[in-house]
Amino acid sequence: MDNHEPARTSEMIRAVPAALDEYRCPLCGACFATRAELARHYEGEHPGVVAPVVVALMLNGESRQVLIEPHWTLQRALQFRLGLSGTKHMCDRGACGSCTVILGGRPVLACTTLAIECEGMEVQTIEGVAADLRWKPLVDAYCRWDAMQCGYCTPGFLMAAKALLDRNPHPTEEECRAALAGNICICGTYPRHATAILEAAMLMGGEGAIPVSEDGGGADA
Ligand code: FES
Ligand code: FES
Q1: Containing domain of residue 112, as a range?
Q2: Which of 76, 79, 109 to mutate to test the pocket of ligand 1 (most atoms within 8 A of CB)?
Q3: Fewer CB atoms inside 10 A, N or C side of the chain?
């Protein structure tokens, strides 16, 4: 991640409109000015089908609205309606942690969370972390310690790590491993994660870099 990445991710977040100005029918593409008009369109053209709903979120600190079908997951809403593709879709069944976001202060799996359940809640995604310079030490530590290979799982690991540091700014190595226990990395980067988090915790606590071995810290998770 280069020095321009926080600015780029801030732009992505700002690109999400604060309020809906059109209501598009996902079945036929017709557009309407209000949700009520869209609902009437459903009654006339798609009888028996549940009309999309508007969900309001506090997304990465910004108030946002999204129009979704009621059965959509939070991961799907983020990727396909809000243009935030950092929350990854891998197993789609709550087994891998790649879709981890922070919802109301707790790490949750966005692939098993309905977007409609998140009405009015605070949602933090990897874009919010990448745009926030306070979390740059964590992102940098992941890069410095090569705690990623293909990188597909990395946003989920980072969100789990952020949730840990939010509630425990000085975790032990064991606590780091426990916090990431629900995240799977097919590339096998496990030994590096605790090292990166411990280094970030020290730097963010103003205590300077911790002494760590060149191989990234030893034992497997
Ligand atoms: S994609 Fe959500 S847990 Fe795997
Ligand atoms: S870095 Fe490739 S899946 Fe984890």
Answers
A1: 5-19+52-129
A2: 109
A3: N
